[in-house]
Structures are given as structure tokens and as C-alpha cells.
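Researcher: I'm comparing several assemblies side by side, and this is the next one on my list. It has 789 residues spread over three chains. Same procedure as the others: predict the full complex and return the structure.
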Amino acid sequence: MTLNMVMSHFYLVAAAVVLTIVIGVPLGILAYFYKSVRKIILWIVEVLQTMPALALLGIIMVFMGAGKPTVIIGLLLYSLLPVVQNTYIGLSEVDPAIKEVAQGMGMTKLYRLWHVEMPIAFPLIFTGVRIATVTSVGTAVFAAFVGGGGLGSLIYRGIRISNMAMILSGTFVLMVMAVGCDGIMSYIEKRLYRRFSPAKPYNE
Amino acid sequence: MIRFEHVSKRYGDSLVLDDLNLEIATGEFTVLIGPSGCGKTTTLKTINRLIEPDKGKIFIDDQDTSQIDKVKLRRSIGYVIQQIGLFPNMTVEQNISVVPKLLNYDKARCNEIVRELLALVNMPYEEYAHKYPSEMSGGQQQRIGVLRALAASPPIVLMDEPFGALDPMTRRILQDEVSKLQKKLNKTIVFVTHDMDEALNMADKIIFMNKGKIVQMAAPEEMLENPADDLIRSFMGKHSIDNESLPQTAADFMRSDIYSCYRNRGVREAIQQMARRKVDTLLVKNLDETYAGTVSIKNIRNHGKDMKTIEPLITQENAVSYVDEDAQVCFDKLLNGQDSYVVVLNHDQTIAGIVTKTSMAKSLADAVWGDSQ
Amino acid sequence: MSHFIALYGKRLSSAIITHFWYVVISITIAFIIAFILGILLSRMPRRANLILPVISVFQTIPGIVFIGLLFLYNGMVPSTVVIALTIYAIFPILKNTYVGIINVSEDFKEAAKGCGMSPFQILMKVEVPLALPSIITGLRISTVYTVSWAVLAAMIGLGGLGELIYAGVSSNNNTLIIAGAIPAAIMALLFSLAIDLLRKALIPKQLRRDNK
């Protein structure tokens, strides 16, 4: 195993997560604002996540060819659900009283979204990003099959040449990566909730 | 001045506002009151156009509000709601400066406003400005809610049951504070409540609504004296002056939260009881619960130090009355005698309560007030 | 299209059938094991703080690892795939069964005890029914994953829809990729649809709200 493999795995996940946020959060906002597209958006992201990862990657590969972009797009589509769903839920669950008072004070819809609703929904959106990240670390293993590199290729090679040590070391690094991401992000998440949640007093 | 002209609003089949016409003068504290569903909150919300009427027009200083940009209109009107609605992600300072910021005031000006407003309600800037809403009590939060509505000096402030979620003590205090602020800053306040106490306490003018219509619009005094219908009278409850229900018997004036002890109790115990309850006499009852008499601290001091029980010290000199005795007769006993209270008995000779000079004074005050109408 | 069916029709239908059975058998065994284990674990709730993170960590192991390791031990037989998928599918169901039961409010258990229910009756009549939404959510996650990981059976030459995808990827045959990927996707959707129906049948409306 090389550091290179770890880094490329990490790169795949990071790129996918960044894209997921860039695309998923606006989709969640759209679903919140427009009732007409809400069902469609939420349904599509759910269907995407239900698709077998390798099947999804295979289909993308037909259009994009083998390589990292295929993997990143696959991971992105696969990760949309938690981010879109949590953005939508986070925004719609902002206390109606707060929405009303913001409106009554003369905030425009966008100002309200940006200065009130998004900050309040932020912890829940972050939870969505955490789930997407941890899932992506595992799913990125499939990259090996469509020429995307990463730790999957190590494990895959280990299986082909019957090298137990290779499989286990790859798996171990993968688990550390997943648990590490989860741990760090859970910690940040807890601090966010403490800070923003009106229910829990914030003391420092 | 706010003026409603033929304003109607319908939700489905129910007519929430039914051809409403009213005027609210500048600088006046107007309270909208009525049973739930009467349209009071809807009326309030049509002023800042959170609800648009189906028919009719609303004018603020002779300007048709439907012609003013909604957002601009709202920024020029303060708004306070029952659920307080402080933004949990913002500090006190940020919450108060929301509207000034929307109006593009500069930072220094915002800060100045926050300091001035916090000073008005005696909340030191250093202590509170950087707190988050979740760190404060409900009462403190709603103070900030009120200040936030005042921040950009709007001439009109709308308040939708602002103290509904607070405990009675805090509610009283905030009522007084808001009344003072209103007088001091000379705001036009439109205030929704379902609590008649609150309305009487704060209003210059009360508008009583039912089923989307105004039933009565009057100053508190006038509404107290001439409630327009039975619904209003029932809302007034204990405030209304109704001669027929004036209390007539001793039972209506007595305090029933009294303490009595059995005649075979020890002297020391009796002294302790007096000390604990801060009284100088105790009511004593026989073992079958009937009234036996009273024991005073004076008697104990003079004779009873070395007695075991209070039994020998019981006297029956204290004035006694019965529950259905005329209140007037009972008061006479109290005024003519030396005692600080009259013991009221049930007909089976058990103790019902006592009538004190305080209870009498209260009834006299009521009588005087009653005579004034 | 008819050309395609003539060429791959048989291969496709046998792949779909193999894939289907991999999933159904693995999930059935996994559910039975996970359900029982979940209940057993819930009897020792003080260890919750230890058990839950361990389950979560195991859940981060990709399915491919189970298949790979078992392949080395067990060789190229279908049971390798079934065992590997079963192990993998156990974790989500186990976690959700355990969490679901643990989260049943003490009040209900107290009330059940007060009615004179035995511990077993409390479990079957109160705890499991109330934990059902959570358990079925776990079942759904496991099933969707299993359809996904069953694709890897082909990696060790054991058929299923993965075989077509693999063949397609390695021979640059887009038709084959699609021929494997689309049925796999549809199968996953049908399975999750079936579980949604199961949930609707089993759980009263009022309990369904918070569980997606």
C-alpha cells in the first residue's frame, strides 16, 4: 500500500463531498421553496441512493468512460440524499414563529433564508454532510472497478492474488478513515448543536 | 393614524373579518380583545400585510398600505409575537439590530441604538448584549423582543399576545414596562390579548371583537361601566360592577385559609404555632371539631407558662358570627368589639373562617366604587 | 433489441434469477440472526455504549472485504457469496433492532409490567411492535446494500448481474454494462418498494411518521 492510494481515495471522497454540498444544498433549498418540485427532487435523490453503486458507476461510465470523474460523479449522486433531505427538513422545521417574525420585520425571502433559516438549519445540514462523507469513504471502494484508483484497488488486487495481508491492511486503513471522518465531524456537529439549538442552553 | 375601511377577510367558508371599519389615533395604546377566532389577530396582521384582506383598504397616515411595498411597510412597523421569536443564532445585540441593519444603518449607529434600548429596560449592555436567547429567561427574552421591535424607531408597534407565554409575575412587570415605554416614546401600539386584566391595565382604548366584527370600542372605564353585551360582561368577570351579585353574607368575606388546633394541645406547641404563623391568637376546637374558643399569646404569657395544655387558657370572648349572617351585622361586631377578627361558624358549630379588618376594607372599597357609577 | 435478446437473453435471465436468490437468501438469514441478536443485546442495555460503536465500526467495512476474505477461505462456491452478504446485512438490522428496542419508553414497559405481562410478553407485545419502524428501516438499508454488493459476486466468478457489468467493463461493451446495470437498479428499487409496502402493512399510520 502506498500513501498515494490513501490520498487518491481521500481525494475522490473530498471532491465528491464538496460537489454534493454545492449541488445538494441548493436542491434542498429549491425543494423547500417550491412545492411543485419538492416531491420530484426528494424522489430522485432517494432513487439514486437505492441504485446499486456498481450499476450506477457502470451507467455513468458508459457516458464518461473510465476514470476519476466517473467515480466522483457516482459518489456525488449517491451522497445527495442525506444532504438534500437534511437541508429540506432543516429549513422546513425552523420554528414558524421565527419565520413569521422575520417576515413581519420586513425581511425579504432571500435575506431571511440567508440570515435566519440557513444558520438555524446548519447543524442538521452538517449532519447530512457527515453521513454523506462516511458513506462515500466506503462506496469509493468501487472506484477500483471503473479505473478510479483508491483503496478499492488494493483490496481488489489482494483478492486476486490471494494476499490476506493486503486485503486486511486496505480494509484497516479504510475503517480508520471512515471512523476518523465520523469522529471529527461528530465532534464539530455536537458543538454546532450546542451553539445554535435554542432548546439546549449554550454555555462557554 | 391607522384607518380600516370596509375590510373583509374570508378563509374558506368562515368570514374572519366582516366589513371592519375603525380608526386608531396616533400615540394611542389600542387593545384588540375577544374570544379566540374573533379576528383580533387577523386584524393585527392585516396592518403589516402579513395577511392581505379580500376587500377593503387600510390606511396609515392616509396612505393606502396596499400601495406601499410590503417589505418597506413592515420595516417601518414594529412587530412582537407571543412565541417571542428571537433568532436563536443571533446574540441580543444582533437580534435588536436586525431592522436597523435591514435599513442599512451603519455599525456605530446600530450599536448606539442597542445601548440606548437596553438602558431603557435596565439590562446592562456589558452583561446582556452578547448573550444568546437560549441563555436568558422568558421574561428577559421578551424584553429583547420588544426592544427589537422598537429598534428602528417605528411610529407603530404591533404586539400579538406578547406576554401570553409568560408567568403572571413577569407578565405584570412587562406590562408596566411597556406602558412606560409607550408613554415615553409616544408610540402607536396595537396590542392583541385575550386577557381582560391586561387590556384594562394597559389600554387607552379597548376594541372588543367577536365573529369578525367590532362589538364595542371604548376606553377601559367606559367599557367597565357600560359593557355592550353579555359576552363582554363575562369577559370582564370580576371587574364588572353588578349590584345583584354583591356579596351579602359573612361567608362572602371570610378567609377560610385559617389554622386551628385542638384544645388538648401543649402550651409550647401553641407558642410555636403562633410564631410560625405570625399570629397572636389561635382558634381552638373541641375534639369533635366544634368551636371551643381562642387562646391569645397574652393569656399564655400572663398565666400559662407552667401549664401543660392550653385548655385552661381558652376564652370565649372573641366575637362570633355565622356563615349566613348579614355581612353588615358581622362588620358591626368587628368595628364595635375589641377583637382583630370575627370567627365565622357553620351551623354545626364547626369553624368556617374568620372575617378580618382587611376583608372588610376590601368590601367597603368595592361598595364605594360601586356607588360611583 | 430483438438482436440483444437473442444474444444475451438467456444469460440475462439466469443472471437476474441468481442475483435475486443471493439477495433473498442472504437477507432472510441475516434478518433472523440480527433480529435475535438485537433482542439479546437489548437485554443488556448497560453495555449500549460499548456495543453501538462496535457495530457502527463494523458497518464501515465494505462488503467486498467479506466476499474477498471468505473467497480465500471458502473457495469459489455460492455459499461464499451468501455468507458474505449475510454477514454484511446483519449490521444495519442488528443496530436498528437494538436501538429501536432500547428507545422504547420506560413508561410503556412500566405500564405493561403493571398489566401483569411477563418479560417475554412485554418484548413481543410492546417492545418489538414499537421498535418495528426502526427495524424495518434497518431491513431496508440492508436489502439495498445487499443488492448492491451482490454485484460483486461476479468478481469471484459466481454470476449474478455483476457478471454482465464486469464483462461489459472489461471488454468495453456498453450494451453489456447497461444490460447488467439497469436490471440491478430496477431490482433494488423493487426490493425497496416491497419493503415500503411491508412497512405500510405492518405499522399503523401513526407510528410511521418519523421513519423514512
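Model: For your comparison table: Residues 2-243 of chain B form a domain with the Rossmann fold fold (CATH 3.40.50.300).
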